[in-house]
Amino acid sequence: MDDLRELYQEVILDHGKHPRNKRHPEHVTHAAHGNNPLCGDKVTIYLVIGERDRIEDVAFEGRGCAISTASASLMTEIVKGKTEAEARALFERFHAMCTDDSYVSAGDDEIDPESMDRLQVMAGIRQFPMRVKCATLPWHTLTAAMAGKEKASTE
Ligand code: ZN
């Protein structure tokens, strides 16, 4: 289990140091700013949503701690190509993973087992309640952007 934990930490560190999709796309259809006053994380999520509510492109900018940056980076990789509904469903499961001590993966019955597997690297955050909002901020901001809201806050 310790090896697994180390692997997870490596993935988070890698995404924190070399964030994916940290850029400003040209033809953004939806965008929102997120703020986590507890830690001082700020993130802007940019979306290009195409036909049938599909997320054709997603990127972010901002300044935040390693956890919020890693979570934003991982999220952009995971939700790209998904529909808005799929992204919302993933956030619901991810939120439970980060906050609910009784969370268990539904395994093969999971809505999107592959994405949930990738998100598993963040599950250790549950032991650090102060940092949960760092991990969920990009997702809160994503759902705000999809809903046409300009701002999201973890408060
Ligand atoms: Zn943070």
Brief synopsis:
The chain has 5 helices and 4 strands. The protein is an alpha+beta fold.
Descriptive notes:
This protein starts with a helix and ends with a strand. It has one domain: Sufe protein. Chain: A (Alpha-Beta Complex). Strands 3-2-1-4 form a four-stranded mixed sheet, with helices on one face. Helix content is 46%, strand content 18%. A hairpin with a 5-residue loop joins strand 2 and strand 3. With 155 residues, the chain is α+β, with helices and mostly antiparallel strands. Bound molecules: zinc ion (ZN). The site of zinc ion (ZN) has 8 residues, from helix 2.
Bound molecules: zinc ion
Amount of helix: 40-55%
The biggest beta sheet reads:
4 strands, mixed
The share of residues in extended strands comes to 15-25%
Average predicted confidence as pLDDT: 93
Radius of gyration: 14 Å
Secondary-structure element series: HEEEHHHHE
Q: What's the CATH class, please?
A: Alpha Beta
The backbone outline, from C-alpha atoms, is globular
